[in-house]
Amino acid sequence: MQDLLQDIKQCTICKEHLILGPRPVVSAHPESKIVIIGQAPGTKVHASGVPWDDASGKQLRKWLNVTDEDFYDEKKFAIIPMGFCYPGKGKTGDLPPRPECAPQWHKPLFDELKNVELVILIGMYAQKYYLGKAAKKTLTETVGNFQEYLPKYLPLPHPSPRNRFWLTKNPWFEVEVLPELRERVKNLIH
User: Fold this and answer.
1) Could you give the strand order of the β-sheet that contains 153-156, starting from the edge strand earlier in sequence?
2) pTM
3) Which Gene3D superfamilies match (predicted)?
């Protein structure tokens, strides 16, 4: 696993497409029980090299009901984005994750992760990649039907502060999805 993580951190497969250059961000351990698959690091995470080291990460830890210490314990959580490097800025936010990363690195990582009991899929890119045809037409529908994907997968919206409108429009998320998420996480890490 250490050799694989080192290979990923030295990856330059798409460097010509990265405005800030490559800086792959990933965290995993062979004993990880939960895998969090998000989109791609933002500029703050690119600068720090620490996964989810931003406002979205703070919100995600609230959703999971975990401390920073638990969240960054690689034996509890593997953090594997769809794109390992900051993809650049688009018109309405960051660009999509680079398409080279997941096909290149996800299978080798999962081959090393022998104790995974839950994969949390954050955002449409992760949900479409891992759920395939089982994913619904919209993120809202996929998250709303989260029970269909359990016990292996649990789809979530992105915890970005920009998603406040989505959360306000979909109050069922906090009532139905978050308690299920928190219970499963608690049972796996304690």
Assistant:
1) 77-79, 34-37, 118-122, 153-156
2) 0.97
3) Uracil-DNA glycosylase-like domain
